[in-house]
Amino acid sequence: MDFRRRFVVEPGSKVHLDKVDPGYKGKDLSHKDALPEIAKQVARMDRLQYLLYADGDQSLLVVLQALDAGGKDGVVRHLFSGMNPQGTIAVGFKQPSSLEATHDFLWRAHQHAPAKGQVVIFNRSHYEDVLVVRVHKLAPKSVWSGRYELINDFEKMLHANGTRILKFFLHISPEEQLARFKRRLDDPARHWKISESDYSERELWPKYIEAFEEAMEKTSISHAPWFVIPANRKWFRNLAISTIVADTMDEMGLKLPPTRVDLGDIRAKYHAAEQKPGIPGWKATD
Ligand code: AMP
Ligand code: MG
Fold this sequence. Notes:
globular; alpha/beta; binds adenosine monophosphate
């Protein structure tokens, strides 16, 4: 399956999340069948991230958004299973600090945008400023409605500087959210994930969906596309996202940088050192 074509929000198209099955898992695909395929994608990401880091000329920004218990933390863990922590950073966006709140809404996102050679994963992002801010009326409509264009300009600028941007909405059903809330309640190791606002936020589900649909319609552009990922099944979600990430990195033309030294000269130095493996003036004690 071409996951990118299957799940991308085509620029300029309408988004109807009620028409997307959160339980979708591909035709005839089982978790067991998918395991070797997931391992293959993880290995591809690993190789490509090594090249991205070595190449040092481009970068990748992955944006994760979802309703509560949508699986953002799980995707971060999955992506990291295929990437070296050297060159990879995950950034979580919470309620703005008092310092952040005194700046424009893109300020904190810009500070964490990837440097050349880096992969950065945003766990929540600048999109909260057209999601939670809209749903909870934290800013008037006249303010948040102007932000789509500002976001597009911001992402265009990052893209012009060599950053590829992939944005994922993890789509779960309300039933799956409740099942995950129950798992959190039943498992003391997950109690820390429970928040006072889980159930009041859940009641705002239709308002969040409306906000997500408009955000994706207005900000899915060819160089920074949104993908709606069916996410009730964690293995399918992971397979889809790692395939999309690897396919995208594959197209970035990543290559090892040219050697900066005269290899003949360095080989000669190596052979000379091999003749005298010890270092004058240093003796190991054992
Ligand atoms: P969590 O991801 O569960 O740790 O929760 C982080 C919380 O911060 C969520 O409730 C977000 O909606 C909230 N949040 C993130 N960004 C913003 C923002 N720009 N304005 C207000 N709340 C935000
Ligand atoms: Mg939460």
